[in-house]
What we know:
The protein is about 35% helix and about 15% strand. By secondary structure, the chain is of the alpha/beta class. It has one domain: P-loop containing nucleotide triphosphate hydrolases (Rossmann fold), CATH 3.40.50.300. The strands form 2 sheets. It has a 6-stranded mixed beta sheet, with helices on both faces. A hairpin with a 2-residue loop joins β2 and β3. It is globular and about 50 Å long. The model has no long low-confidence stretch (mean pLDDT about 85).
Amino acid sequence: MEHVSFEVPERTSASLIGRSGVGKSSLFGAILGMVKPTSGSILVDGRDVQRLTSVERRDFLARTVSVVFQSGELIDELRPEENVALPLMLGGARAASALSQAAALLEEVGISPAAALTRDLSGGERQRVAVARALVTRPSLILADEPTGSLDRETRDLVADLILSIPQRWHASVLIVTHDPELGGRTDASFQLLASSTGPAHLVQR
């Protein structure tokens, strides 16, 4: 990719659409500071993540960015509220406080705090838990990597509704990486990453 430039304003949603292999994951990794671009800059909350030291970048991104993965990436042996509370406890919060915040957030996304082990949840319920876990640290930006890719159509629409409500309900920006043009068409802004037979991939606003 060369000369790829886009912006996700505060409290808005955007989608990045493209087929496999075109560079979506690389761009995703660059935002998370895992991939170093050869030129240019990546600003999150006004700070260039590539100019931070590795420790500064880790701490800054932990406070400002959360990720929702396609398969949820939850720990099956934990209860849902324990999965949601984990980022807070890793950040030093007391277990009781973290679990209380997690339970409240799970109710907001439609999951009972009394739910069984995470492994017993349906696919849609797992993604709701994953969204709650992403929200619990109150980030400025949520990156969603094919968040509805493994769901049936009805469940996909419900999870999409939840994710697209984040800017207004929880005041975070959302960037969705997806193959699904229907989901991409529902965001405030949509960008398509296109492969080129004559050069690097390029970005087009839809």
